[in-house]
Amino acid sequence: MLRYLEALLQYKFRFAVILVVLPALLVVASVALFPTYKGSASLWADSPSSYGTGFFPSGWNQYLSPADNEAASLTQLMKTAAFANLLVQHLDDDGYIKSKADRDAYLTYLGTNLTISTAGSHLVLMSVTCDRATECLALLKETIASTKILAAELQKADSQQGIDFLDAELTQAQTSLRSSEDALQKYLAAHPGLSVTSTNIDRPLELDRLVADAQDKRNRVQQIQSTLGQAQYYSSASATLIDAGPRVIDEPRITRGGLTGDGSSLKRGLMAWAVLAGLGAAYLWILVWIDKTVRDVGELERSFKLPVVTTIPQLAPVERL
After folding, report:
1. What percent of the chain has pLDDT over 90?
2. How many CB atoms lie within 10 A of CB 124?
3. For residues 43 and 246, is the Cβ–Cβ distance under 8 A?
4. How far apart are the C-alpha atoms of 48 and 35, rounded to whole Å?
5. CA 38 to CA 12: how far, in whole Å?
């Protein structure tokens, strides 16, 4: 250990450059030349309960809070190619993308730097780190706008599928009802003495069958009409909920900037410092390893396995003469 300390003191200026001067320059250069910024926005997720008990939009988990549902929905949307294309289109339309490098930078931020978290039952936090403040603000603004548009489109398409299915079922049920009613009317026309309200003990079983069949078909039509009306209401409510939210509570803003930015540039400088410290340690080990100078009696005895009989002290300059 003493050999390492001795080498460190012997070449103190070299190690001062390696361990102090160069790392300090790298930290300053990283902070000054490659600053980073953090942008944030706060969103408010409304509860669907105000639209009726039992109403949940498509993909809504009733066992999670509105904020958790909204965060999960946003996270999934932002992983799709459809969202990335829509985001790039909005950024391009608003003049934020001037080259392919800009486009790639925004997509990189979206994939690796943009995070969604919750801070309560309704509050959703969106944040992103960028190399320029304007990029953070633009990305947050267009991400919020794009998620609303895409979520509304998906909700509308999902609701419309259910409505189209019920419309087809209703058309089929109404056609079947008309057939049953026509069959009943033909039977009554062929038997003038009978009616659907007749209580004659000799009332034919065929008439009972036709009346019951028509009533079953009528009940089926009413049931589908009720379900369709509820589906149309839920579709309208879902569209309103998606269009209205998530509401922006805090507009996109820079929350970490200035000299050290969001801390990323400082971390890069400290990492460079750690690398240089490792190189300095390796350089120190090499210096000690190649230095074969014997510094004390103990080293000689350990190396040659022989006792030292005597030592000659270093002569002073005057004594050498």
Report:
1. 10
2. 26
3. yes
4. 42
5. 40
pTM of the shown model:
0.56
Residue 286 confidence (pLDDT): 83
How remote is the C-alpha of 114 from its chain's centroid? 7
Contact assessment for residue 45 and residue 67, using Cβ atoms and an 8 Å cutoff: yes
62-66, Cβ contacts within 8 angstroms, sequence gap of 24 or more: 65/118, 65/120, 65/121, 65/122, 66/121, 66/122
Sequential DSSP letters for 271-285: HHHHHHHHHHHHHHH
Strand runs labelled E in 88-173: 115-118, 123-130
Residue 209 belongs to what H/E stretch?
Answer: helix 205-244
Phi, psi of 39 (to 5 degrees): -110, 145
Closest CA to 177 of 224, 132, 134, 107: 224
Q: What is the DSSP letter of 46?
A: P
Distance CA 97, CA 304 (A): 74
Cis check for the bond before 313: say yes or no (omega within 30 of 0).
Answer: no
Q: Which domains does the chain have, with CATH numbers?
A: 1-35+260-305 (no CATH), 37-256 (3.30.1890)
